[in-house]
Amino acid sequence: MEQAMPVYILSGFLGSGKTTLLQRLLDHWKAQGLKPAVVMNELGEVNLDGLLVGQSVPMAEMLGGCICCSIRGDLSTELATLIKKESPDVVVIEATGAANPLEIVDAVTEISLYQLVELKGLITVVDAAHLIELYRSQQGSTYRLMQEQIRCASVLILNKTDRVTPQEAEEITVILRKWNAYAEILPAVRCDLEPEALLEGMGGIHAEACFQADEEMQAAHAGEASEAGAEVHGSHDHVMAYTHYFTRPVNSEEFEQFVKELPRDVYRAKGIVTFSDTSSRFLFQYAYREADFMKITPQGDVPDVAVFIGEHFSSRELRTRLLQLEKRILARPAVVKRSL
Ligand SMILES: Nc1nc2c(ncn2[C@@H]2O[C@H](COP(=O)(O)OP(=O)(O)OP(=O)(O)O)[C@@H](O)[C@H]2O)c(=O)[nH]1
């Protein structure tokens, strides 16, 4: 009998470490001689994570919206087309960090009605430092969304444990267990764990816990909306993205300073920039107040671009500041190249 195509869903809040884990899983499968494929969903207009995955892995890109709501209908089509065209051995769906996992589980299950697809599990990556801060304040849509992603997980990766104390890591483990009684909890730094252990420890989808989480979320939203006199929307209509295309290089130190001073409401940013004072281009990442710059030589024609994701921030202000950085370069004499 023909074997069902294993499908994994990668969930977790913005910047928690999903792509970091995805790279590890892909390396693991490739080393086993398997052909993995990826469905990558991004809120922004560009797929920067795709650059990290590399061209050897077949990928369906779903950009500029979230598969759990605005472009949900497309997921079934994209997945079915990818499977038909590439005949992979395994497929991973990387959701946007703002996605409601239940909707994605629903969409994949829908496909399994007419295609031999087996949803193996939902892996949720948790940013330890971010979660503990939200838990302590106990409010906001982000907190509830994280809670939902945790409740629906078949396995939980407690990532970024390097950013919390051992006591805090223990405290978070207790919280995770309270919210999800079934999933194995795997602590990690940069999702560095044994892929075998992760994939084998997966106990399928716990639909009941997931539906309960969804109902609680809907109730919380209904409460919020009636307080505000507004309509009830999806779980993350508070999340917004701004994409900035650079027209010229910027100074590296000024850009680093700009990233450092990003408003707190911007909780995720990533992009590719060319600096006027360095010899290579850089991929920059910013997640929960931590920035990271990596030299990169993108294949093909990749523009200089940055995507900012957060809640209620002013895109106009960001745009003005970035334009100022670009303009300042024009007014400056040539500088000595910095070696980063
Ligand atoms: N300090 C620390 N940084 C980490 C860890 N894991 C990942 N990062 C960094 O966090 C940033 C975000 O990681 P990603 O893997 O891109 O996160 P993501 O969940 O795919 O992000 P989105 O796709 O935007 O939702 C990157 O700069 C990573 O290098 C960790 O364990 N500790």
Number of strands: 12
Strand content: 15-25%
Helix/strand/pairing class, anyone?
alpha/beta
CATH class of the largest domain: Alpha Beta
CATH architecture assignment of the largest domain:
3-Layer(aba) Sandwich
Note the main attributes of this structure.
340 residues; alpha/beta; Rossmann fold; Hypothetical Protein Yjia, Chain: A,domain 2; 2 domains; 7-stranded parallel beta sheet; 5-stranded antiparallel beta sheet; 11 helices; binds guanosine-5'-triphosphate
Structure notes:
The protein is an alpha/beta fold. The chain has two domains: 5-221, P-loop containing nucleotide triphosphate hydrolases (Rossmann fold), CATH 3.40.50; 239-330, CobW-like, C-terminal domain (Hypothetical Protein Yjia, Chain: A,domain 2, 2-Layer Sandwich). It is built from eleven helices and twelve strands. It has a seven-stranded parallel sheet with strand order 3-2-4-1-5-6-7, with helices on both faces. Strands 8-12-9-10-11 form a five-stranded antiparallel sheet, covered by helices on one side. β2, α2 and β3 form a beta-alpha-beta unit. The longest helix has 22 residues, at 207-228. The model is unreliable at 225-234 (pLDDT under 50). Bound molecules: guanosine-5'-triphosphate. This is Cobalamin biosynthesis protein.
